[in-house]
């Protein structure tokens, strides 16, 4: 029962070392981190981390409880137990000789991605969406030759007024 | 003679002196803040990065500073002080190697939930991150083994941070907190203003339990036919031993206490079944396995207690009372979780808890087991048996001493054969199993209780891991009675190699150890030796008559094993009983 994916948001004090504390906790307790993003939250002095992890429900319960033991952790929310919007950004530098560009642009358009830079024989594609969509566009661009790829990991929020 | 501890000086006058708003250095702020937290004794070792702090301590007498011979000695002593007194232990070390020498002691305290504030120096803030001389990222190194930690970047934050550190260390599930102070911060001048209330948004330990869970527990007690209490260190840490006693006598539920729970309940009581687990009693282990209601009070289902988890207490409804929600369900699925301070929980339970009225047959069964399966060993008139030595200590002190140990066979024999009746009289490294812990911890315990008898029981292996602290016993006239159970071998490792590794005795021979009597004398501590019962009685009597520290080298039988024993991978009722 280790294959379940969970997305959790962790509201933390914006202190030096807080990312290390959170990531270190996952590491030493044998919890898996699939992706982790950190940034400012709506409140000054607090950051929000969004962590995608895999594990059974028991593991998830331990993760939440252990996170709460960290003094700098203020709130832990299991986003994936509720209707949520999850997004990831990817920048994909794909080999693009002028002759191949129209085809690539076709893929970009279909995925509502955008071209954010063009070089002599490459293009940089920016794609925003859920993890599945990003995986799909990468698959489709692979045949053209991906020179460089970077993904942000998932950030997420609960929809509307759902609590 | 008693240890030289300072008079308690926290009079209003002194407090006023400390509270006076003045521009002082970070080092003086530190000392005043410690005084405001009620600190009476710190253990430490100076070095370059803490010289401003030690300079501020020059001629300072408002608390006692004990200079150990190794930072490891200092941190274990602070730990022993905390365990024996219930107060926060304080330890100071310098940056780099001074700080890293604390790591074992911090981990020891973390595993056993001991409240400590650990102060380390660091290189100046301008040098941090440059691999400067004696620089180590000690907050980074100790992050997994502290409850919380601080790197102080601004002297303005110091009073608040120290106040928070003591609050965090001593509330909720207790633990060590580290404060790393760069050299320029301890030198910087600032107007000292005592901090206000602690405000930590992310830290609100829940002490009061959910009433509905207590009602469920009471119903379960009324229905149970084979109920058992499993009480741990949490009972002692929350000061709940009296409430526990009342709970047991009201409900008449039999009780087993874990290694760290020894002393939480009087060992002579008819409902006490002894320690459970790997080297626990037949009665406790069989009682756990056959119970239909297991009430865990402040214990954490350590693997040394549970044995094979799959098959642990298979018939029992599990109740778990703990201040740390993360412990509940961590190892054993829980039917009735109760999050709260053990003392608060028991005090709320006591007026409403029913007697376990359906458990008469069960109590009779337990009483029968206790009679037919006590701890036993084959005594000898030729060689000294380690179990006999512990029994002698127990009888001559009437179970009243504070006893500390390292880890290993001597620890288990002490746990089995010394009969603890009061909390905070048993000081042992349970979670981490730290060799070298017991002797310095005994020094700390004696500092906390200058007038009590403190016995440090060690193996000949562990004694050599912090033996340098004999010096501070001699110099400070700390009257610890140091017992070495000397079998010339790493006994517990030998036992495993015999029973599990097919008698392949790999690297356990400790011949070449120093003559412990001469070692003691080299430091100015009286040394005695005993090789048979008569010498043992005589040496112990002499030690008791001698003011000040005494080391007694008890030369015991080499091949003795600790029984019962549950080997790994077995359920706890599958016990090797030995041939006694």
TrEMBL record, chain A:
InterPro entries: Acetalactate_synth_ssu, Acetolactate_synth/TF_NikR_C, Acetolactate_synth_ssu_C, ACT-like_dom_sf, ACT_dom, AHAS_ACT, AHAS_small-like_ACT. It catalyses: 2 pyruvate + H(+) = (2S)-2-acetolactate + CO2. GO terms for biological process: isoleucine biosynthetic process; L-valine biosynthetic process. It is an enzyme of class 2 (transferase). The keyword Amino-acid biosynthesis applies. GO terms for molecular function: acetolactate synthase activity; acetolactate synthase regulator activity. Coiled coil: none annotated. The keyword Amino-acid biosynthesis applies. Keywords: Amino-acid biosynthesis, Branched-chain amino acid biosynthesis, Transferase. One of its GO terms (cellular component) is cytosol. Residues 7-81 form the ACT domain. Dimer of large and small chains. Belongs to the acetolactate synthase small subunit family. This is Acetolactate synthase small subunit. It comes from Paenibacillus algicola.
Automatic annotation (TrEMBL), chain B:
Residues 406-554 form the Thiamine pyrophosphate enzyme TPP-binding domain. GO terms for biological process: isoleucine biosynthetic process; L-valine biosynthetic process. Its cofactor is thiamine diphosphate; Mg(2+). GO terms for molecular function: acetolactate synthase activity; flavin adenine dinucleotide binding; magnesium ion binding; thiamine pyrophosphate binding. Residues 25-139 form the Thiamine pyrophosphate enzyme N-terminal TPP-binding domain. It is an enzyme of class 2 (transferase). Residues 214-349 form the Thiamine pyrophosphate enzyme central domain. Its EC number is 2.2.1.6. PROSITE patterns: TPP_ENZYMES. Pfam families: TPP_enzyme_C, TPP_enzyme_M, TPP_enzyme_N. It catalyses: 2 pyruvate + H(+) = (2S)-2-acetolactate + CO2. Keywords: Amino-acid biosynthesis, Branched-chain amino acid biosynthesis, FAD, Flavoprotein, Magnesium, Metal-binding, Thiamine pyrophosphate, Transferase. Pathway: Amino-acid biosynthesis; L-isoleucine biosynthesis; L-isoleucine from 2-oxobutanoate: step 1/4; Amino-acid biosynthesis; L-valine biosynthesis; L-valine from pyruvate: step 1/4. GO terms for cellular component: acetolactate synthase complex. Binds 1 thiamine pyrophosphate per subunit. InterPro entries: Acetolactate_synth_lsu, AHAS_TPP, DHS-like_NAD/FAD-binding_dom, THDP-binding, Thiamin_PyroP_enz_cen_dom, Thiamin_PyroP_enz_TPP-bd_dom, TPP-bd_CS, TPP_enz. Belongs to the TPP enzyme family. This is Acetolactate synthase. It comes from Paenibacillus algicola. The lineage of its organism: Bacteria, Bacillati, Bacillota, Bacilli, Bacillales.
